[in-house]
Amino acid sequence: MERGTYGYIKHRQSFLFKMTLACAAAVALLATIGFIIWRTRFNLLMIPSMLCVLPLANYLASYAAMAKYHTPSEELFAAVKAYDDAGMLMSDMIVVDEKGRRAGLDLAVIYKNGIVGYQGNEKESRDRVEITINDTLKSRGIPMRIKVFRNFNEFTARLSDVPAVIEEADARKISLAKDAVKGVIM
Questions:
Q1: Which residue in 137, 144, 146 sits closest to 170, CA to CA?
Q2: What confidence tens digit (pLDDT) does each residue in 16-74 have?
Q3: What is d(CA 127, CA 171) in angstroms, rounded to the nearest whole number?
């Protein structure tokens, strides 16, 4: 599943959790088999067992980083489904700034004049999202800006002015903006 699509966070968390369990099982299995065969913890199977700890730590750290973020509800997604069908919607985003700080962005509609975003979590930094994405768009020469709303009614009211259709002349600009946003999300 691609970053920025609905359900990505849930799918990615599930994948990372399963891989963490698989690596932990491999470590335990190799260590146990080595101990049973040689009756000592200093055996040949301890080397691959220890090497399996590295991907285990990587998957576990990635899972922990994504643990507090969630896929938006189906009701929210249904309200903007027309934009997804038109290829204008990005969803399930964790924006990472240049210092590695993260902030969630539930939904974003990219249209010819800019980006309208929705962030449902009041504890997240709206400014961090706006600054990070605006700086990325500016550095890539894309003349757009993002405005993030925390109130879903305000978000949908702003979208009432945005047609859910991409005109041929604007398709490339929207595609470039989507690629730029994908560059700052995990």
A1: 144
A2: 999 999 999 999 999 999 999 988 888 888 899 999 999 999 999 999 999 999 999 99
A3: 27
Q: Considering only CA atoms, which of 142, 148, 81 is closest in space to residue 113?
A: 142
Q: Mention every residue, 6+ apart, whose C-beta is less than 8 A from residue 16.
A: 59, 62, 63, 66
Q: Is-contact 125 109, C-beta < 8 A?
A: no
The contacts of residue 25 (CB under 8 Å, 6+ apart) are none
Does the predicted TM-score (pTM) go above 0.70?
A: yes
Q: Which residues contact 150 (CB under 8 A, 6 or more apart)?
A: 118, 119, 120, 122, 126
DSSP SS3 for 14: helix
Q: What is the pLDDT of residue 40?
A: 85
Compute the distance between CA of residue 113 and CA of residue 119 in angstroms, rounded to an integer.
Answer: 20
Residue 131's contacts (CB-CB under 8 Å, 6 or more residues apart) are 97
